[in-house]
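Recall that a protein's primary structure is simply its ordered list of amino acids. Everything else, from secondary elements to tertiary packing, is in principle encoded there. The following example makes that idea concrete.
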Amino acid sequence: MNTKSLKHSLMLGLIYPAVLGTIIYRLFDFVASNLCSFLDRAVGWPLLTKLALLATVLAFYFCDYLYTVYTKNESFGWLFFTFDLIFLICLYATVKALHLDDGAKAPNFCAVAVCYLVFMALYFVWDCLESKVAKEIEKPLYREVIRWEILSVVLLSLWVSLALWWPSKATAWLVVLLLVGMTAWFIRIVVKKGRLFRALGKNRDSTAGPAIP
């Protein structure tokens, strides 16, 4: 196993599942601890917002995990390994910003948005580098991915500017809707990347010739 394959396996087999598993546990613990409080109008809004954000964050980073799975071993050098470590730090910081331990305290929406902004900026660099070595069949997907990243960075930057000038429940829900929309688009991208990954894998198998018994 070469160094790039080892880093890829280490990230996908140990580091990323460990962090994602911890966050999934936090989701279950949060729901179980606050089940009765969801119907309480005094704290219902912060709790519902946190639940929506936590579910969205989990879906988003599960997509990132799959995206990393579909990244070729030969592309996964130290730079991409470092990027994935930063993504996991952003994931942990995002969950901390939700204030799950205090049911009545609203999330720090600006911190959440900044974490996503860092993520999307690095993802843009990642995909620009990947697109340069991509096969012709992969290039339309990378063009869509880069459009998604640029649009996300622009909208998140505008939201942060708006939230600093006019903090309110309306702007809070606006960023929740923005993150849901980004995640829905990410799911679409990952599905497409998975199909390409499997198609390219079949092509490699067919060109490799029959296995020697």
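Residues 169-207 form the longest helix (39 residues). Residues 10 and 16 are 9 Å apart (CA to CA).
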